[in-house]
């Protein structure tokens, strides 16, 4: 049983339950009927919070309000999460200087936005016989990005592509 579908009121199966009030006051172990009567008198729900305990622990609370608060908390934690995406910058081993600078600026922008950058050198035909040219391009890029990024994965040849992954350095607050 997951945390979000707790048994409430008549769904509780145990004969005897340990009852706790909304403000954590222990009422002790009692028959389920008695606990349900007490909850109904205070116009609240009886919620089974620890079904595996002997006897199960039930709390008298406003279940609707509890669910609402829980959803609000989940929404807040989701808001604080940052989804990191990997952006790709593709270059060729014999890239011209100006083109390299354009790709470098794109990589810097991606890193400043909090994304990871996958730098790919694409080889065609006989260029593959000189992988050191691709490695030099990636090393040059790593050198240019060293102030704002760390190399997460070193240059590695995969098929006809050589790949290096950069992650933004954490800013000191």
UniProtKB/TrEMBL annotation:
Cross-referenced InterPro entries: T_IF-3_C_sf (IPR036788), T_IF-3_N_sf (IPR036787), Translation_initiation_fac3_CS (IPR019813), Translation_initiation_fac_3 (IPR001288), Translation_initiation_fac_3_C (IPR019815), Translation_initiation_fac_3_N (IPR019814)
Subcellular location: Cytoplasm
Gene3D superfamilies with a match to the protein in the record: Translation initiation factor 3 (IF-3), C-terminal domain, Translation initiation factor 3 (IF-3), N-terminal domain
Cited SUPFAM superfamilies: Translation initiation factor IF3, C-terminal domain, Translation initiation factor IF3, N-terminal domain
Keywords: Cytoplasm, Initiation factor, Protein biosynthesis
Sequence ranges assigned to domain Translation initiation factor 3 C-terminal in this UniProt record: 84-168
Source superkingdom: Bacteria
Record keyword DNA-binding present: no
GO molecular function terms attached to this record: translation initiation factor activity
PROSITE patterns on file: IF3 (PS00938)
Residue span(s) of domain Translation initiation factor 3 N-terminal: 8-76
PANTHER family per the UniProt record, alphabetical: TRANSLATION INITIATION FACTOR IF-3 (PTHR10938), TRANSLATION INITIATION FACTOR IF-3, MITOCHONDRIAL (PTHR10938:SF0)
Family: Belongs to the IF-3 family.
Function: IF-3 binds to the 30S ribosomal subunit and shifts the equilibrium between 70S ribosomes and their 50S and 30S subunits in favor of the free subunits, thus enhancing the availability of 30S subunits on which protein synthesis initiation begins.
Protein name stated in the entry: Translation initiation factor IF-3
Gene name linked to the record: infC
